[in-house]
Amino acid sequence: MKILPDTSAVIDGRVSERVDDGSYDGATVYVPEAVVGELESQANDGHDTGWDGLSELQRLADLADAGDIALEYVGRRPTAQEQRASYEGDIDALIRDLAAEHGATLLTSDAVQAEVARAKQVDVEFVEARVRGSGDLIIEEFFDDETMSVHLKTDTRPKAKRGALGDMHYETIRDEVSDEATMKAWADDIVNSARSSPDGFIELDEPGMKIVQFRDYRIAVAHPPFADGVEITAVRPIAKTDLDDYEFADELRSRLKERQRGVLISGSPGAGKSTFAQAVAEFLNESDYAVKTMEKPRDLQVGPEITQYTALDGEMEKTADSLLLVRPDYTIYDEVRKTNDFSVFADMRLAGVGMVGVVHATRGIDALQRLVGRVELGMIPQVVDTVVYIEAGKVHTVYDVTTEVKVPEGLTAEDLARPVIQVTDFETGRPEYEIYTFNRQVVTVPLSDGNADESGVDRLARQEIEREIRSIARGHVDVQLEGGNRAVVYVDDDDISYVIGKGGGRISDVEDRLGIDIDVRTHDEKPAGSSSNSSPSSGGPVEGTVVTPEVTSRHVVIRMDEHVGETVEVRADGDYLFTATVGRGGDIQVSRGSAIADELEQAIDRKQRITVVSA
C-alpha cells in the first residue's frame, strides 16, 4: 500500500492514526517536500497548525524506526513564489502530481483537493477535517452579568472590568496566577474553536496577534514576540439599548428620519458610544432604511438584517467602493479614527449615503475638530450635521452643525464677513462654537456667556494682533484689548517707529487686515498694575503630558518616543492647537511657516505650557 498525505491530513494526524488502528500497517508513506515547506512556513509564522503538522512528521519518523511503515520524502521544495501563491492551488497541484507519479493514494481532508484529484483520475481517500478546539468559549466562566471585559496574561492574576456604563472598575477576579501552559491552552482553544464553530470567525490573523469574534465576544490573543507574554483580552457589550432609553429620543428620531444625515457619536473609551450606535442602527433598520456597518473588528451587536462589513483586503476604501454599489441608506462606521477613516467617511457622505461614525473624543466639539484639516472647511457641515456626545452611557450633548456667511461673533468690520460653521446646542438652540478661517488659519472659537475674563473671540483677536506685530517688531510684544474693535500694543522703544511705519502706513496695513484699531505704545507707557494677556502659564492642573518643543531651521519638533503611531492633540495652556499622529521616529514634526507652526511658536514665545493629550 502506498499513501501520500497532503498538508491537511498531516496537520490532523490522520496518517499515524491509521497506522495505530492497523489500516496502514506496513504501508509506504510518501511525504512531499511541499508539505514540509508549508508546515515550516506556518510554524515560523506562529500558527499552531504548523507545529501540529511537524509533530505528526516526528510521529511518522518514530513509526518508521519501529518498522511499522516505510517513510520516504519525495518531490521538491516549493519556491517562495509558489508558497505565496499557495491559496491559488499551486502547492496542491505539486502534491497531486507526486501522488500520480508514485502510484500512491492521496490522503486529504481538503474537499476541493479531493474533487480535483478525482477529476485528474488520482486515487483519493478523503477524511473529514478534524474539529479543533472545544467548540465553546473556554474563558466564558470569567464573565458575569456586569463584566464588560476580561484581561488574562501569563504570570498574572486574571482581572476584569465590571460595573455599569460610566462606572467601571478594574479588579482582580481570581487569586491564582495564570501560568504559561494554561494561557497557551486557552489561546489555542479560543482560536481553534473560532475556526471550527459557525458562531465564530478570525477577524485578524497576523504573526503574534489574532482577533477573534465568537458570538458577542471580541477576543484579542497576543503572543511573543509581538507581546512580552501570552495575553488574552475578551470584550463583550454588557447592555443592548433602544433609542427610547436615551434623552432627546423623539427629537433624534425625527432628525434621523427626516433625511440621510452625517452623524458623529463621540465620547471617551467605555462611555457607551458603540452601544448608542447599535441603538441608532436598529432604529434606522426598523424605520425602513437599508442599513450596513463598516467595522474592524465587527463587534456591533445588531440584528441579522443589518449586514456587517469589515475592511476588504485590509482597506476600508475598498469596502466603501463596494458599499457605494450596494447603496445603503445609512452606514454605521465604527470607528472613525485615522485620517484615512475620515476621508472614507466624507466620501461616502458626499455621495449621498447617510453616515453615522463613532469617534473617540473627550468633548463633543473635539469630534468635529478632528475633521478640520482632513475635510475642506466649507464641506464639513455637508459631511457632519449632527454631533452626539455620550457620557456614562447617556446622551450628554447634541450639536447641530450648519454654515452661514457672516461676520464672526466679536468682530465688527463688515468686510470681515466669511463662511462660518456654527455649532449650536440642539436642546437650547444657543450657538456654542464658531469655526472659520481667520488670517489663513482655521480656528474654533467658543462663544462666551459673558462670565469669563476673556472670551474665545477676544483671545483669538489678541493672538492674531500679536502675530502681526511680532512679524514686524524685534523685541517683546504685549497686547491688551479695549472693547471689541480696539487694542493697545506695547513694544520696545527701539521698535515703535518701525512698527508704526512712515506716516503710519505699516500699522494702517495691519489694521486693515484685521479690522481692528491699534494704538502702539512703549512698555513704559503701560499703566501700573495692568497685567499682560501673554503671561506664562499659572501652573494649574495639567491634562496630558507636558512637552518642550524644539525649534529647528525647518520644523518645530515634539518628541513623543513612548507614543509611536498614536493620534494626539497638542494644546497650549489647555487650549487646543492641532491634532497629529506621532511618527515612526517617535516625534511630531510641524513645518515652519505653516499656520499651525506659527501658533505653536507663539505659544512657546509666550511661555505657555505645551501639553500632548491622547485624541
Give a verbal description of the structure:
The chain is an alpha/beta fold. It folds into five domains: 2-126, Rossmann fold (3-Layer(aba) Sandwich); 140-235, Beta-Lactamase (2-Layer Sandwich), CATH 3.30.450; 243-405, Rossmann fold (3-Layer(aba) Sandwich), CATH 3.40.50.300; 456-525, 2-Layer Sandwich (GMP Synthetase, Chain A, domain 3); 545-614.
Give a brief description.
With 615 residues, the protein is α/β, with parallel strands linked by helices. Residues 1-115 form the PIN domain.
Side by side, the strands of the main sheet go 15-14-16-17-13-18-19-20-21-22
Inertia-based shape: elongated
Number of helices: 18
- Helical content band: 25-40%
User: Which structural class best describes the helix and strand composition?
Assistant: alpha/beta
Poorly predicted runs are: 534-540
The radius of gyration over CA amounts to: 32 Å
CATH class type of the largest domain: Alpha Beta
Major sheet summary line:
10 strands, mixed
Overall structural domain count: 5
